[in-house]
Design brief:
The complex is a heterodimer of chains A (170) and B (409). Chain A is an alpha/beta fold. Chain A has 3 helices and 7 strands, in the order αββαββββαβ. In chain B, 48% of the residues lie in helices and 11% in strands. The chains are: A alpha/beta (170), B mainly alpha (409).
């Protein structure tokens, strides 16, 4: 539980100098940065090549539809890690309908392949340039994106409308 | 939802159609060697695998959606069902993430108890992985030896919390039950006798020509690829990535303990197997140190902090206990959660298991994202298997230790 001292001031200072207009914040020892969607690719490339964040730990998304005080609909979350110096950084991108497309991080990290497919599957955010842009967990004919907040917990009848094959038909 | 039967799309269909001799083989979803429900579509040239397309989602049960509707204590039962081979590690991961979001510091005794169950879970997970890998490669006896020892770890867990398989042991700010002398005695017994089984397994496999031939040089993963694909845990360490969150980002009280992190540089199936065997030895050392040094004092946080559900004796016999229980259980009361987001990861047996939590002031998470190691590692599979033979599929699958319930969530 300890707030780790590895998120040193030095990295914060370098990030401030490199990206002066991006908001930087810390919560429980975690460094977070907000990047605009238009400059995501160049930002991530610099983070990988100049700052040494060589591992993409996770890509996920939060739907802020019912979140108190939220201005944007979706918040993409990229968790980066530097395996050499053992530091972490969270990069967030805010998106609003109808512009739900960001560049795919596949050229930088291959880990993005399935993680971005899952975000597309669950939230309906498109990743431009993804080599295999299909659903991953749900069937291809599923129409909704179930982790969005406007999708009910019980579903919309998908479980009751499965095609049933009877014995003579099969 | 329209009821069309969409065909399974392959990535480079046009390329494959040109080669008429290429065979398509459907592997799974129900197949003994996949262990759980996952499907592979393999493109074969004779016995050589040209391409593999994993098709997952058969066990998708919406755990992350459920996490937005269950409170922080209820959701621990769902984490049991993610990696059901080592549920204790998932419980610890979930509640460490919740406590990080809440900003709680748990008691020293609780840290040791959680480390104890997490390390036992690691041994049990690696036992299954090594045993099942032996089973798939024709060494049946190892599986039986491994499962006998898993049974004894189940016994320890049963003595500790009453459940064998889905433990749901941790709570926000503490654990379900404190550790008892019987548990300590059983753990000591386990520490004393387990090395013999480990030695048996080593004698059965380490010089077994069939096992070595089928794993050495199969499914090689380079260090660069391991980092680029986001691998963690034994899979990454077998490729030379010296990263272990217990050392690198010490959580709980791992700083106080003496242990080493086994690594290998070959990156093949044999290296992953050997790393797991060595990790079991280190975990056993850890279990021994933990169980002999459990600090005295309370295991749960104080009731006044209003995070831990008080015991029934306090609820029935004191007004503070009753009020605290009421405040925590009522659906519109509960924990005071900041409107913030945080990520916390632990070194689970399979790799980095993390939870990304978004709190919105209510006792239920606004978003409970699980970063499952199996999902990341299974994405590697086509990369590892291409060019090898069909019989190597089970070796690679076994060495990655894919748990489909965690893969699909």
């Amino acid at each position: 539980m300890s707030d780790r001292p590895s998120y040193d001031e030095q990295l914060q200072q370098r990030l401030r100098e490199a990206f002066p207009e991006y908001p930087l914040s810390t919560f429980r020892g975690q460094l977070r940065m907000v990047a605009p969607a238009a400059e995501l690719m160049s930002t991530m490339r610099r983070l990988k090549e100049e700052f040494g964040f060589d591992m993409l730990v996770d890509v996920t998304c939060v739907d802020y539809l019912h979140y108190r005080g939220a201005k944007d609909r979706f918040g993409l979350v990229y968790l980066l890690a530097d395996t050499e110096n053992n530091r972490r950084l969270t990069v967030r991108v805010y998106l609003n309908e109808p512009e739900l497309t960001v560049p795919s991080m596949y050229p930088l990290w291959k880990a993005a392949d399935w993680l971005e497919r899952e975000v597309w599957d669950m939230f309906g955010i498109r990743f431009a340039g993804h080599p295999d842009h299909r659903r991953i967990l749900l069937p291809e004919e599923f129409t909704a994106h179930p982790l969005r907040k406007d999708y009910p917990l019980q579903g919309r009848g998908e479980r009751h409308n499965f095609p049933v094959l009877t014995r003579p038909e099969s | 939802m329209p009821v069309t039967q969409a065909p399974f799309q392959t990535r480079n269909l046009a390329h494959d159609e040109a080669q008429e001799y290429v065979w398509t083989l459907n592997f799974g979803p129900q197949h003994p060697a996949t262990h759980t429900t996952l499907r592979l579509v393999l493109k074969l040239d004779g016995e050589r695998v040209l391409d593999a397309m994993p098709d997952i989602g058969y066990l998708h049960s919406g755990f992350e959606k459920l996490g937005e509707h269950l409170d922080y204590n209820q959701y621990v039962t769902v984490t049991d069902r993610m990696n059901y081979i080592s549920p204790m590690a998932n419980n610890v991961a979930w509640h460490l993430a919740v406590e990080k979001l809440l900003g709680l510091e748990i008691t020293p005794r609780c840290k040791y108890v959680r480390m104890l169950v997490a390390e036992l879970a690691r041994i049990s997970d690696h036992l299954l992985c090594c045993g099942a890998m032996g089973l798939d490669l024709g060494a049946f006896t190892v599986f039986l030896y491994a499962f006998y020892q898993r049974e004894r770890i189940y016994d320890i867990f049963e003595t500790l919390c009453g459940a064998r398989f889905t433990n749901s042991y941790t709570r926000v700010g503490g654990v379900m039950h404190d550790i008892t002398p019987q548990v300590v005695q059983k753990v000591r017994e386990f520490v004393r006798t387990f090395p013999r089984t480990l030695a048996d397994i080593e004698r059965l496999l380490h010089r077994n020509r069939i096992f070595i031939d089928r794993t050495r040089g199969v499914g090689v993963l380079s260090k660069e690829d391991a980092i680029n694909f986001g691998c963690s845990g034994p899979v990454a360490r077998a490729s030379g990535v010296t990263r272990d969150l217990r050392k690198d980002e010490p959580y709980l009280a791992y700083e106080e303990l003496d242990f080493q992190v086994p690594c290998a540089s070959e990156g093949d199936c044999l290296a992953r197997y050997l790393v797991r065997i060595e990790e079991m030895k280190e975990s056993l050392k850890l279990v021994d140190q933990i169980v002999e040094n459990i600090p005295p004092g309370p295991v749960n946080l104080d009731m006044d902090q209003r995070v831990i559900i008080p015991g029934k004796d306090q609820v029935y016999q004191s007004i503070e206990g009753l009020i605290t229980h009421f405040e925590l259980i009522m659906w519109n009361r509960g924990l005071e959660v900041p409107c913030e987001e945080c990520y916390h990861a632990i070194e689970s047996p399979n790799g980095e298991l993390g939870f990304y939590l978004v709190g919105d002031g209510t006792p239920r998470a606004y978003r409970a994202r699980c970063r499952p190691p199996s999902f990341i590692h299974f994405a590697l599979f086509p990369h590892l298997i291409c060019g090898h033979t069909l019989s190597d599929v089970v070796a690679v699958l076994g060495s990655l230790n894919i748990i489909a319930a965690e893969l699909d969530r």
